[in-house]
Amino acid sequence: MKKSNKAVSLALVMLMLLSSCAGGNENNVETLPSTDTTKPVVTEDTTAASESESETEEEKILPDIPTSADYGDDEVLFLVWDRAGWAETVRKFRDITADEITGEAINDTVFNRNLKIEDAYKVKIGLERVPDNTIVKTINTEITAGETNYDVVYPRLNEASSLFTGAQLHNLHKVNYIDLTKPWWDQNCVESLTTKGYLPCAASALNVNDKDATAAIAFNKTIASNNQIEDLYTVVREGKWTYDKLSSIAETVMQDLNGDGVMKPEEDIYGFLGARDVTESFYYGSGGQMVSKNSDGVFELTFGSERDINVTEKIIDLMNQPWFMNHHLIANQDDNYYRQLFEQGYGLFFWMRLDEVTNMRASDADFGILPIPKYEEAQDKYYSMVSRYITGLPSIPITLTGEKLDEVGLVLEALSAESYYTLIPEYIETSLKTKNSRDAESADMLDIIINNRVFDPMHIYNFGGFSSDYLSLGDTADKNIASWLKSKQKLVQKTIDRTVQNIEDAE
Hints:
By secondary structure, the protein is an alpha/beta fold. The protein has helices spanning 5-18, 51-56, 105-121, 135-144, 187-193, 209-212, 221-226, 232-237, 243-253, 277-285, 306-319, 335-343, 355-359, 402-421, 423-436, 440-451, 457-461, 466-472, 481-506, and strands spanning 74-82, 123-131, 152-154, 215-220, 270-274, 291-293, 299-301, 324-326, 347-353, 367-370, 384-385, 453-454. The strands form four sheets. A five-stranded mixed β-sheet has the order 8-5-9-4-10, with helices on both faces. The protein has a three-stranded parallel β-sheet with strand order 2-1-3. It has a two-stranded antiparallel ribbon with strand order 6-7.
């Protein structure tokens, strides 16, 4: 789908921001040149555009791979997890294959992308789905048997940590043709998840699924207007969108409509419709990092500073206010339930992942989009975690070797590079900004959200069950965080050390 050079340039600037580290200087960003998305992913020269081209347009970043190859229509088979209840939502992987042109933007972009790569390298791109609770077993069975039926695998991150030990999956830093310094690989993800030089998976432009998994907040514009709430977009831009600001607004908006003195779903208006995910999401929104790397590049538990304790206590306090509705405390209800409550006008704020923007495109609700709030105004920027519960990242089974491994590395790099110039601009500019978000300000907020994504190893590996246990803190009013941490530290660090040792042994 062809766009104007101006539109594409804006999208690419945004995408370069996306690839910057979450902890870096958000103003120190290289601006990509404008380019035409209709140009091929590779040219006759694999390192630079021709001299004549460079005279008429700014240079386009190209992958350092052959422009063509003949793999005899060999299939590169992707294995992804699926969940029956999510089959018709955007949480289903919709970014790897497409059977035909349908008129739907993402589908058609994927179809054309794959056709280009398949023609260039004489390959076929295939997809197989297995239930989310069986994918790790499926991958392990293949590896144990020494089989290579699947070339690229996407274990659900919530279940994948047992695979990230160096013995089951290739180190992406060492796969031929994959260049993790290129902008189509999320640099924050690469940096955060690499330990001892080993990286089992990484976010790339090949997929929109991990973008869909990014945390954000929606607000009901009608409720905001009726309550004369200040312009929330301005609050964000001025750096004043904090826990305290959210709390003060949510408390004002809360209404016990039937006057029975008890807040009830589907009867009263809440200030905030949330989930236990808010516990982690708000922590990462504060700029915190549970697991960091020491001077040797090794994972270590760093949660436990005075600020970490204060942040967590504040989050627990927020989640136990009468204006906060935690759907996890309501029996037999899931994410769809509180999204529907939001659409029906039972809450001002709604914690969500970005996939909900697409899910709500048919809704009559007039809503806007905001980033996760800061802990305090002095914080350098807004941060958004990528949820391990609804996404996976591409990995390559260790049983893949030789020419086949090279082929898969080449195809992954080619698909990622092509997606950087086609799929991601389509996702951002059309699917999110234009088609599904309701105003220009929300589009600006989306840039802030996606440009500052967090990939904490703790959230991915869940060392010693620490991440899962942290989620549950929000379900109670117990704020004795120091004592809770003390009971967890030894096991967590031991688990981290064992993981790192396993990686060293495998290497």
